[in-house]
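Lecture notes, continued. The same structure-token format from the folding unit now serves as the input rather than the output. Read the line below as a description of shape only.
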């Protein structure tokens, strides 16, 4: 386990910690950009009220609700749909970096990350609801965005996306998930990461 990483059980047994849960929702797709560049997967992120990109989710109180029930509650507010997230969707838990605005010390704030694959039609439904009926739309959540996974001839796409600013460890959660779930070839990801740092 990488440093700062905890199992779900260890995280829940840590006394006096605040917890936040976020989820990456994704689907397969046959859509092609310009009719020739395969999009391959739709991955949902959001533009947050603070101008940073992040995953849907938020603070959860494990004394009052399970992590997954709390995450589903956050998703109803931010996405306007009832999506059940289960323990099987849990990917990792880790201490937030000491610089996180939500924590006074690195050990007091734990972020839990989930990944859930859904159907393309459900992705569209989430996007519709997030822009219409979601209670957080227009204030806490400014809009949903899809992550471009391809690289265009001019070097745009994933590398440009990764050069934006992200909340907390959302950028590494995204990059790690692209690899772990085989959503982008390692060498393509490596290229995109190298370009995004220029
Ligand atoms: N990785 C790590 N930390 C994250 C991530 C992430 N992917 N996303 C968010 N965070 C941290 C941020 O520091 C954030 O403040 O977790 C905290 C809680 O997540 P939010 O999604 O912002 O929480 P939410 O419950 O949806 O919002 C409630 O929290 O951010 C504050 O004041 C803000 O009104 C907002 C309130
Ligand atoms: Mg919220
Ligand atoms: Mg949130």
């Amino acid at each position: 386990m990488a440093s700062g990483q905890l199992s779900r059980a260890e995280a829940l047994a840590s006394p006096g910690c605040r917890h936040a849960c976020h989820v990456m929702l994704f689907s397969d797709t046959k859509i092609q950009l310009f009719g020739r560049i395969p999009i391959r997967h739709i991955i949902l992120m959001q533009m947050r009220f603070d101008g940073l990109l992040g995953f849907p989710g938020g603070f959860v109180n494990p004394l009052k609700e399970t992590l997954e029930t709390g995450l589903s509650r956050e998703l109803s507010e931010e996405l306007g749909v009832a999506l059940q997230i289960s323990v099987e969707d849990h990917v990792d838990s880790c201490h937030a970096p000491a610089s996180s605005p939500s924590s006074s010390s690195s050990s007091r704030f734990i972020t839990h990350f989930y990944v859930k694959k859904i159907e393309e039609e459900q992705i569209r439904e989430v996007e519709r609801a997030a822009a219409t009926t979601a209670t957080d739309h227009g204030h806490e959540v400014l809009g949903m965005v899809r992550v471009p996974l391809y690289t265009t001839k001019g070097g745009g796409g994933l590398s440009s996306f990764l050069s934006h600013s992200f909340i907390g460890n959302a950028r590494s959660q995204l990059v790690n998930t692209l690899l772990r779930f085989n959503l982008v070839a390692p060498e393509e990801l490596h290229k995109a990461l190298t370009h995004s740092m220029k």
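Point for the exam: The mean pLDDT is 93.
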